TrEMBL record:
Domain Amino acid transporter transmembrane: 1-167
Ranges that cross the membrane: 7-27, 47-69, 90-110, 116-137, 149-173
Keywords: Amino-acid transport, Membrane, Transmembrane, Transmembrane helix, Transport
GO BP term, pick one: amino acid transport
Key word Manganese present: no
Gene Ontology CC terms: membrane
Organism taxonomic ancestry: Eukaryota, Viridiplantae, Streptophyta, Embryophyta, Tracheophyta
Presence of the UniProt keyword Transmembrane helix in the record: yes
Compartments in which it is found: Membrane
Family matches, as InterPro entries: AA_transpt_TM
Protein name, per record: Amino acid transporter transmembrane domain-containing protein
Length: 183
């Protein structure tokens, strides 16, 4: 399993770094949040890439929204005493998806919000919380190699969390200053 995780992270890193480096090389800092918007041709490649994004988002949305679905359905069954079943699930999940689509359409700076909230959620869970947990569980010798590497990751993760959140907030302010609803 560990080898599989390492291979998966390497593949993801190659894909992300490839897109970010080549995107910056081709477009500079004028690239859009969605790099596919900046592309003009070949149209078949853009269409295929957009289709892959749709497949990815449909799958990941279901995974990340599952706790929300469970919480909503539990609230409706336990508090409002609605009967559990397929009809309740279809209605609850459809309304939730419609609400999130409305929010995504209403806020065109949604990518900036992702950067802002991603700084609070992604950086801790990826960079420094695992290191803190590892230090608490294994208790390595202070100032040993493992201890130093983990503390470097913790410090860099905290810095990344603050910098990305500040950058996301700045971008929200810049985009919101000239924003008009539904135009």
């Amino acid at each position: 399993m560990w080898r599989g995780v390492i291979v998966a992270y390497i593949i993801v890193a190659i894909c992300y770094f490839g897109v970010s480096i080549l995107g910056y090389w081709a477009f500079g800092n004028a690239v859009a949040d969605n790099i596919l918007i900046s592309l003009e041709h070949p149209t078949w490649l853009i269409a295929a890439a957009n289709m892959m994004v749709v497949v990815h988002v449909i799958g990941s949305y279901q995974i990340y929204a599952m706790p929300v679905f469970d919480m909503l359905e539990s609230f409706l069954v336990k508090t409002l005493h609605l009967p559990p079943g397929l009809l309740l699930r279809i209605i609850t999940r459809s309304l939730y998806v419609a609400f999130t689509c409305f929010v995504g359409i209403t806020l065109p700076f949604f990518g900036d919000l992702l950067g802002f909230f991603g700084g609070f959620a992604f950086a801790p869970t990826t960079y420094f919380l695992p290191c803190i947990i590892w230090l608490c569980i294994y208790k390595p010798r202070p100032f040993g190699l493992s201890w130093i590497i983990n503390w470097i990751c913790i410090i860099l993760g905290v810095i990344l969390m603050f910098v990305s959140s500040i950058g996301g907030l700045r971008q929200i302010i810049v985009d919101a200053s000239n924003y008009k609803f539904y135009q």
